[in-house]
Amino acid sequence: MWFNIGNEGSCPPDIKGESGECIEKGLGLGDVTVGLPKQAFNIAEDLPGGLPYTPWAAALMKERTATAGTQDPHSKCLPPNFPRSYSLPHIQKFIQTPGLVVILDEFNASYRQIFTDGRPLPEDPQPSWNGYSSGKWEADTLVIQTIGYRDDLWLDMRGDPLTSAAKVTERFRRPDFGHLEIEVTVDDPKAYSKPWTVKFRQTIVLDTELVDEICAENEKSMEHMPHK
Length: 228
Prior knowledge:
Layout: E1 2-3, H1 38-41, H2 55-66, E2 92-97, E3 100-105, E4 110-115, E5 132-138, E6 141-147, E7 153-154, E8 161-162, E9 167-176, E10 179-187, E11 196-204
Parallel strand pairs: 4-5
Antiparallel strand pairs: 1-11, 2-3, 3-4, 5-6, 6-9, 7-8, 9-10, 10-11
């Protein structure tokens, strides 16, 4: 299972052998300081020049900024769509079978399917939170293309948009035992004037299992949010 721990603290960059102390305790995090990754707030934090908004997206961002993130679907217990999920502190479990990769997410017991049986992307997929994904292996890298997103998705807490016009390409690579690198390229002509690429880094979590994390159970936050 994999987890974006944000600040890796004392965790060594290559978790294996004698340097693997931070994955030998408890939930696999040891004495690591866990915090929200900066990409959870701004997916393009490390992107030179920031995101290339279209006029439509720039106007939308002004609206979302004015509501201070209170319209964030995630704050309303709605699904954390990919690729946003890679920046959130919820454990994910990858299941690889011939022809299919499934990602299980603790948040709301959600899932994503990635078909690896060679099928093409559909011409008119049913819009969904995670879209329709088809992938193939290029040497040691799993390359995934996804279309068919809903038109109202957020990529981070500040509200960077992902629309139904988007095609997202992900490149999964495991550089060592303890880490998973995910390169994400977003090509969304409705929201952005050109494609852009960001990278995520996941850390392995050993000796644990997924647990129920049902957001709406005993939810108390929405009643305190001023914008509804």
